[in-house]
Amino acid sequence: xxxxxxxxxxxxxxxxxxxxxxxxxxxxxxxxxxxxxxxxxxxxxxxxxxxxxxxxxxxxxxxxxxxxxxxxxxxxxxxxxxxxxxxxxxxxxxxxxxxxxxxxxxxxxxxxxxxxxxxxxxxxxxxxxxxxxxxxxxxxxxxxxxxxxxxxxxxxxxxxxxxxxxxxxxxxxxxxxxxxxxxxxxxxxxxxxxxxxxxxxxxxxxxxxxxxx
Length: 213
Known about the structure:
Elements: E1 3-7, H1 12-23, E2 27-32, E3 44-48, H2 55-62, E4 67-70, H3 79-97, E5 101-105, H4 120-123, H5 126-141, E6 146-152, E7 154-156, E8 163-166, E9 173-175, H6 176-186, E10 195-201, E11 204-205, H7 206-211
Parallel strand pairs: 1-2, 1-4, 2-3, 4-5, 5-6, 6-10, 7-9
Antiparallel strand pairs: 8-10, 8-11
């Protein structure tokens, strides 16, 4: 059992992620601006978290955790303070608290700007990818965290298949339940530490795909 902090704990992916983390025996603290919107389950504690706050205040919320997930997103409304600097603050807070494991939800090709204009779904979220570019680069280059960065393709509200493809490919979407399950399973796979993982819909069971990294 691990004590896990989920940043952005009331969102679409967070809701499925929390269910998956609890199902595998973890204790989850979900931080959200509106904690009343966090899914109500045993072994889940909702706390108020505002990414505009100081690193010290964010660190107080995270104290005692074993791992941090960043799955927050402003949906284009607050890219600098949430998606970019908000993410950086949670990294700094994790280091301040001595938390080593940090799992980031990012975006396909976020670290490869030359790809953004080539794929229509990425071109339409250019500013979001810019925010993720800086957040991901900070995580890799400016922290000593045991990070994993997951970069899914476009999210769809379809039933999960339990199967994915990692790396290059032609698929351009991922059902939200598959992204959440992959995030949850990453915590059990130390071989993913230090990796940036691009994922798409595919034919390989999630566990098998992660085992091969």
